[in-house]
Amino acid sequence: MEVSMTVNGRAVSADVEPRTLLVHFLRENLRLTGTHVGCETGYCGACTVHVDGKAVKSCTMLAVQAEGADVKTIESLASNGNLHPVQEGFWERHGLQCGFCTPGMIMASVALLDENNNPSEDEIRHGIEGNLCRCTGYHNIVRAVEYAGAKMRGEEPPPPDWEGGE
Amino acid sequence: MATTSVMGGSVRRREDPALIQGMGTYVDDLQPTGVLQVAFMRSPVARAKITSLDTSKAKEMPGVAAIYTHEDVAHLGPLLAQVQIGKLRPLLADGEVNHMGEAIAMVVAENRYQAQDAAEAIDVEFDVVKPIIDLKEAASDAAKVHDELDSNILHTWTYHGYWDALGLEDQTPQVDAAMERDDAVVVSLEMKNQRLIPVAIEPRSVMAEYNPGYGRFTVHSSTQVPHALGGAISKTFGMIASDVRVIAPEVGGGFGSKLNVYNDEILAAFAAKDLGRPVKWTETRREAASSTIHGRGWVGTATIVGTKDGEFLGYKLHALADMGAYSQNFTVAIPLLGLWIASGQYKMPVSWTVDCVVTNTMTTDAYRGAGRPEAIYYLERIIDAYAREIGMDPFEVRKKNFWQPDEFPALMGCGFALDSGDYASNVDKLMEKADYAGLLRMRDQARDEGRLVGVGVGSYVEVCGFGPAVLAEIGFSWSEYGLPASFNGSGLVRVNPDATVTVVIGTGPSGQGHETTWAQIVGDGLGIPVDKVRVLHGDTREHPMGIGTFGSRSVAVDGAATYEATLKVREKAAKIAAHLLEASATDIVFENGGAHVAGSPAPRVEWEAIAKAAYQAHTSPEDVESGLEAHTSFSPGNATWPFGSHIALVEVDPDTGNVELLRYVGVDDCGNEINPMIVNGQIHGGIAQGVGQAMFEDAVYDSDGNLLTGSLLDYPLPTAADLPSFELDRTVTPTDVNPMGVKGVGEAGTIGTAHTIVNAVVDALEPLGVKHVDMPLRPKRVWQAIQEARG
Ligand code: FES
Ligand code: FES
Questions:
Q1: Does pTM surpass 0.95?
Q2: For residue B225, what is the domain's CATH number?
Q3: Interchain proximity A163–B719, CB inside 8 Å
Q4: CA separation, residue B354 to residues B375, B701, B751 (Å)
């Protein structure tokens, strides 16, 4: 089946098997391997991308269902070598260890902050609860999102809380 | 972005820029031209004879390149295992299946969909046999899992008898005698430490290529032990090690689940060679649940005997540990890791017996903590129950029985000596940080209001840093994979001609930040900024010998080796600098990217000049060989023994049984720290997995051997919304086991947490008279405990 969409600002089209999942289309046809597959059943969130501005688990969608859509993946987030504040937050606050959940976690966090750039800790925790991380215990992911929120509001991010500080 | 290089500094990770931009390479991202995909046909039943297996129809399906069954791979033997007690796993089922999810046939096809379709089209018929799932039933030997084995109990580990060579004293009579004392208080509980599924978020994946022209394998695998896998492949295929290159690129979490050598890795290599094309397999989440190793799975009775005023007189444990159907890497040896810390931080006689029991379930092996969370759970839970029994504060009881700072090294009854510790100060710091007295007041007030609030405390010691060479004699080595028989550390440090540094290590990190930590160790040692240091790992071609990453060993063993290699390079560089400065090598100091004579900052010579001189004979001193590198091995004389104490505050909803974790405070001690940010991260993740066991996770087989928890819906992991922010601090008690004084921190959080949470929930339920609730403390189970207590 023929499918066309915009991915990271570029028009793409391909002939795919009807059962091809959007995540496999991104990873295998377009070689955008930053979007990961952790479960293929909608529970882990590693495959989170933006479809028409909304965070979507791309394993829960067929490629053909994204016909005509505007899709953004982790690869498009930094612009001209500048990291998105959420990416910067994950780096500055050690929001990742193995990095496998990270692209999905970052895309979910961007969507969260796009809606509300000053979330409480509780709102952050509930906002990303559809994304599983086995490494970080989420503590530093929450700090990373807080950091990014501050940056997006033009404020100084809170200092890191690990022993020894900066 | 801060990139200062100081040991003890929270340098931001060098791994991160690629990972946060989706540019890290994991195995499944590799897609070489012509790659074929694998799907396994797996057993839907727990135990059966295979009466017929017909792949002919499936072989005709579109895109199928090959389908292999046992006959095709029988010549490769069973899957190699390091500890060979029990039945080894056939690469593909050999006429019978022994657990649900056992691989029966391997389909290789042009794409994943075709491979899956063909796997479903294989005709197989079973003569189903009643499986043996229940541990106690298995241990009774009423019926056997494997006819060829004498008993379902594969092995029994005892505290004094686990290693005859040590000639240890059996302390059982001492413990028994203590129980007969008039003033003895004996507390006993039967408890489960349930089976868990490790669930690295990256599914395991392997991609094998074989070039018949060169006669070489290149195998990418999401493994924690690339060298062990390389050894296993060369041994299996009768090749020299140099012709097998194993690469572990980014590995998306491991927690022990990627510390095994797996049949799928060997089979992918076999198929790549047989078909002359790259072959890739990535497990589905369901396969990860049914066919990648599980952890824990103990049921046991812990008994403590002490006086009325809190002095421990002895401790006893008898447990059954579930091994699953086949023995893989360390399987039967896992309880040993618990045995060595059976007495925890306390001075008392121990009688400890663990039977290793085979059942018709997936193999168990090392899952984060591996034997140690189980051992500490039983000990710390029973101490908690004892403190309640005698009405003494649980920290006071602990402090009364701790080894004292002047008693280290503290020789335990298991023959090992705890290296260093100051347990009471650690507890004091925690009590202060958490405002323990305030928490108890708050709890009492809440109780007065009829709320079920609980404060739980727990301590732990762990055994890390594998390892001491003597342990090779009881299986802790990679000798079965054809590698040198000890878990030495090794590290290669090379200053390049442009004064950048290449560090090559044999670890297999899966998120622990080795590229950063090692850059700090070496950069600091040489006075070269971390951004000029590149750390290479996870590639058997780059490093001749690697043990991998597990058992919180990497920094304590390989880090120590790298540190010593750094000192050697510095010594040589000092000779060259002295030559260039016309000074004496012993007077040279390194600072800010260059060297000068101590006490006189000028003249100085930059690392650029030293490095250049090192690589050209006419500018280096005559007695110094060309080049500027060193490769060092490090063999620790003892394991390391990190420790800590934690406090949890919980509230239980009496109407629903829901447990809310309100606060979690930990003071851990892993000796010296290289990067506190990374240390914190390791503890956070460890705590979350401990909370996972305590409150959420449970790998369940029904009595027919069906795995009921094969998806993330049935096997819930803690989410961000389930956890609070953690409050951490540290005490620092360096070890003298290695030159950096570091102990390791990968498993601390997990080992310290599960009992702390359960102790808190039992504390919350104390007014109702509840003495114990088995994990996981999901609402239904807690609610039932409340109902039973209320009668
Ligand atoms: S891969 Fe899509 S939710 Fe897990
Ligand atoms: S960083 Fe490893 S799963 Fe989140």
A1: yes
A2: 3.90.1170.50
A3: no
A4: 10, 22, 19
